[in-house]
Amino acid sequence: MESMDIDQSNRGGSPRLVLKPVEPLGSGEGLPYAPENWPNPGDTWHWKVGPRVSGKGHFKDRYLFPPKHLPGLNTETSPRNKVFRSRLSLERYIRQTFPEADVPKFFASFSWNIPCKDGIMPQKQVSLPVYSSDEDPMLDIVCDVKVCKAGNKKCASVMPQSEDETLPTMPCDICCGEPKFCSDCCCILCCKFISLEHGGYSYIKCEALVSEGHICGHVAHVECALRAYMAGTVGGSIGLDAEYYCRRCDAKKDLVPHVNKFIVMCQTVEYQGDVEEILNLGASILRGSQRDNAKELLNCIESTVIKLKCGTSLEDLRNDVDRSAIWTDIPVSGEGKDNNNTLQSLQDVTPIGPIPFNHDAEMHKLEEEINEVLIALRKAQESEYQIAEGKLHAQKECLADLYRLLEKEKTELSRRVSGGDVNSLMTIVLKRLDQVRKEVTKLREMEEVAKGFGRTPRGVLEEYFHLSIED
């Protein structure tokens, strides 16, 4: 905790403190940035700051952790995980739980503003502020100095923001509690940086509204989401159809508008290999969809990729009047244009001049590729089956042994009528029942492999099947 100096020269007024600036993501306990001896003597609150700094040199994100024994921390009106993320939520809690408390005096007992240690704000003596109920210093919207927690100089949080910037992201203490993880630039699935190249086509941002005035804001690589069965078309309990499923907030996002943007991006991409890579990623998202607009867009993309592979240049696609729709006529959103007519016109486009194409050779090549994939898939599935079979049977034997011990202990208990041994045996039986329940729960979690290893939670595979999952 940072040290604190008290200036007693201001007699008759509020105590004056020398507030020691702290590092981004710093934390501590008690004064000057958290209450002490409230509501009971000896009660100490903890504080923590985030990475963002306002133009005034104060941290925009600051959190207060109350003593665990305080009442009312498990109700719907209390903060999640016993942490107050704003002054307003803390004030509501105090007024509800301690109706006799002097709220202005409480906030006057410590400093809500916490200066940053980057030399942005010189150390000086400040009076402890008192805010009215409708004021909240956390609502500063000017941010001159920003810091990416992951140290990424190209993070979206440190780049100039446009005027139509989306709503702020909800503070997260789960994945964002990990060191070096930034929800603005780190993939929630692999934890590696996203790329802003070509308009950031290669990642998805979850913009689902998770609370009043806040969005989820977590990002993920499209390829990571596809590999994790969290994007594209996926059956089962997730039930995706050209959509993205956010692991953080469980929201779904339609990816057809996202792929529509690929077409617009390709209009300015200079290298043909990059264009093909962008379009192929879009095809991976749409493939298997049962939606008409996704099917038509997929046909359009695959047709364009074939033309590029067969010798049609980017210049021909962009300059030819008949083909200009390939790059410009697909709307980014579904509003204002007739998608069906536009996509149909794209399917009717034919390349100029003869195209060298050996149908038999291409089909033979595709056949070999598919056979290799199927052979590899069969081997992988057989290996997974053997691992699952061994572990599940081992867990079954473990439960069988426990059931035998439990039956033996219950029989022994029934033979005893009274005495100290009865209490001892009863304790043993109860402990054995608890052990059986835990092992049964473990077996139920292990049975998640019925969905396939690719859709089994990572923690289950690592803990119960001893499989190391690479990022």
UniProtKB/TrEMBL annotation:
Residues 1-21 are annotated as: Disordered. Pfam families: DUF7081, DUF7615, PHD_Oberon. Residues 1-12 have a biased composition (Polar residues). The keyword Zinc-finger applies. Residues 151-282 form the Oberon-like PHD finger domain. The keyword Zinc-finger applies. Residues 359-464 form the DUF7615 domain. It is found in: Nucleus. Residues 21-116 form the DUF7081 domain. Keywords: Coiled coil, Metal-binding, Nucleus, Zinc, Zinc-finger. Residues 363-416 form a coiled coil. This is Protein OBERON 1-like. The gene is LOC104754689.
